Amino acid sequence: MTxxxxxxxxxxxxxxxxxxxxxxxxxxxxxxxxxxxxxxxERVIVLMSAGNLATTQAVVxxxxxxxxxxxxxxxxxxxxxxxxxxxxxxxxxxxxVIAHASPDGEKADSYFNASFILGGQxxxxxxxxxxxxxxxxxxxxxxxxxxxxxxETKYGKPIIIRAYDRTMSLAETVKLLLVSFDSxxxxxxxxxxxxxxxxxxxDAFKVGLNRRIGQDDPYYRTISDGWSNALKIAFSNxxxxxxxxxxxxxxxxxx
Length: 255
Fold this sequence. Notes:
The protein is an alpha+beta fold. A five-stranded antiparallel β-sheet has the order 10-1-2-11-12, with helices on one face. Strands 5-6-7-8-9 form a five-stranded antiparallel β-sheet. A two-stranded antiparallel sheet has the order 3-4. The radius of gyration is 22 Å and the shape is globular. It is about 30% helix and about 25% strand. The longest helix has 20 residues, at about 220-235. A hairpin with an 8-residue loop joins strand 11 (about 195-200) and strand 12.
């Protein structure tokens, strides 16, 4: 399992992913789940993955291989005319890989399933953010749905829904995502550090902030400890259930 978030703010796109993958309690490894294709001044494409590791690695490797080829009948990631054509290319690659791996052919067998978050900007258009399903189809973020999650999503979603604001600064967005990831890390052992963080500023057409956050990162420790303490304080400040002590009746003399 994994946890990845792609989020749109007024300043651009922010991405965060964990790096844990496991095939059982005694087989835990670290693999990068965030991949970047960059052509400075013209485009930046970011892809995050969750699901079957062999499937996700095959998709990324195929995109890389075709992008580096001198000529390729399938086209190249850095030559697509728009983000829509880019997500179609990635979706077709996902379908191709799963169809090749699955014994059921075109069917996206659950064993080979993988999902992706794709975001970026191509010169001449605005930043766009998509989620790609194992079947290769996709949806795009909107004002009503400004972020996507893949992997282990349920623990980190409430804080994003409650605190997100599209006018947030990058610093505030990173704080929000770290709280979301910290909640997930504490709830599910299949999500683990280090975390990869990347920021694409609108119309910059180059990678901005790109950082790996580990267990000993001082800011992560401050956020993790601070959030735990804040929750305890908030809980203690909430009113107790009214009249509970009055509802406790004395035991009868006999049963």
